[in-house]
Amino acid sequence: MTSKAYWNSFGRTETSQLFKLYLEEPILESSIKGRTDVLQMKVDTIYGEFYSFEEGNTISLKNSSFLSSKEAIDGKNSLFINGDEYALNHKISIKNVNHIYISAWVKNSNGIHMSLKNDEDFYALSHDIKENKKGWSKVQLLCEIPEKIESDSVQFFVWNSERNDYYFDELSIFGLFISKVKKHD
Questions:
Q1: Top-confidence residue, 75 or 61
Q2: Domain holding 150: CATH number?
Q3: Are strands 24-26 and 165-183 parallel, antiparallel or unpaired?
């Protein structure tokens, strides 16, 4: 286990979705020859989108979502979502990527799940909290896109399983290409 993997899992009852990115796999053939070569994950960012919900920087809103200046993690605005079960329906490109990483700051994060889906029997969701700050939780989703998907996009949305009111801020979406590469000792 690498130190990054250790600290990523420290104090948790379950590992985060990022845990596997920090692991290194020993290469048996190299070990037999007395070398300590390993396979490690290489993450290439294909694209990134960032929405702070400040003036002019917003995505399409669904249901009763609206811009609010009452609460924000940084800046002046966030989105206030008043108990809707589903919100923030947003199309995400999966062209030339094999993973999607999404994170956002959520105030009152109980029951909040980041979700991805498409029409080809693909669905992923997460309530993995990366960190807490000033009463907000950073919720994240790292999802591998199955090779069988033929479309070039998936839908991102927030599922509010407990139908609580919540604030949503600083949404980041990254299209990633993750591969294993050999690291020599």
A1: 75
A2: 2.60.120.260
A3: unpaired
